[in-house]
Each structure stands twice: as structure tokens, then as C-alpha cells.
Amino acid sequence: MNPPKILLVPTDFSLASEAALDQAIGLASRLGAKVYVLHAYQLPVVGFPDGVLVPTAEIASRIVTWAQGELAACVAKRKASGIEIVPILKQADPREAVLAVAEEVSADLIVMGTHGRRGIARALIGSVAESVVRASPVPVMTVHAAA
Q1: pLDDT (tens digit per residue) in 103-119
Q2: What's the whole-number average pLDDT of the chain?
């Protein structure tokens, strides 16, 4: 097996995602790899018995602008690393986006943070990391945030 040259790091801008990105950058510096950092978002849709409430163009624009700013800040914060970091922003279900982007960029390794939720929180929110680990055709490294 060849060392990974293309790393994909999904981020939700949490401490766990930040730790995963830092791990990926450390790995990339040793391997001479390229890092793609992905943020996937979904616009909120609320269903009612009589119809559906979708966000206005203004709300959608605010969400996109915020996500672009956070992604740019995430990359800028690590500019001194000397590693090529490519930001990607997608409007999609995060589980699906990670797998699709991994294929698009020919990722050799996905490095992602995990919150380690348990119980009702995990049942209600789900685990993007678990879904990706189960479905990914490439290796996935999960990282917990530092305590």
C-alpha cells in the first residue's frame, strides 16, 4: 500500500473537527500530501401538516456566507503549515457529501473528528463519522477533540 497523498477532512468547525484537521496537516507534512477540507451544510426545512417552510433567500445567503467565512478562517489559521489546503463547500447531506467529495478528489484517506455522542443525543442527531466509516471505500481515521 502506498502512503496517502490526498487527505479529505470534513469539518463542522467543532473542536473535534479542528483536532482532525491538525492531525491531517501533521500527517500531510510527513507524507508530502495535499489536504482538502470540506464543509457540507443543509438548509433548514421544517415540515408542517399543511405544507413545508423553507428558508428565505436571505437566510440561505446568510448560512452560505457564514460557512464560507468559517471555512476561509479555518484554512487561513493553518497557512503557516506550508501544506496545500483546498477548501470545499457543498450544500448536501454531510454523510453523502463526504463520500462524494472523497471520490471527486480521489482521496486516499478521510480524517474526521468525532464527537463521541452517546444515548439519546446519538439517536437523535446520528453520527456522520459512523456513517462514513461504514460506507467509505477508502480508509477513515477518526479523531476525538483533546480533553
Answers
A1: 999 999 999 998 766 55
A2: 88
* Domains annotated on the chain, with CATH: 6-144 (3.40.50.620)
Q: Which of 68, 67, 43, 69 is nearest to 56 (CA)?
A: 43
Q: What's the CA gap between 18 and 144, in Å, rounded?
A: 10
CB-count exposure of residue 123 (10 Å: 0-12, 13-18, 19+):
exposed
In what side-by-side order are the strands of the sheet with 34-41? 85-91, 34-41, 6-10, 109-114, 140-144
Contact 67, 89 (CB under 8 A): yes
Q: Which of 108, 107, 106, 114 is nearest to 131 (CA)?
A: 114
Placement of cell 463547500 in the chain:
89
> DSSP class of residue 112?
E
List pLDDT tens digits, range 55-111: 788 888 999 999 999 999 999 999 999 999 999 999 999 999 999 999 999 999 999
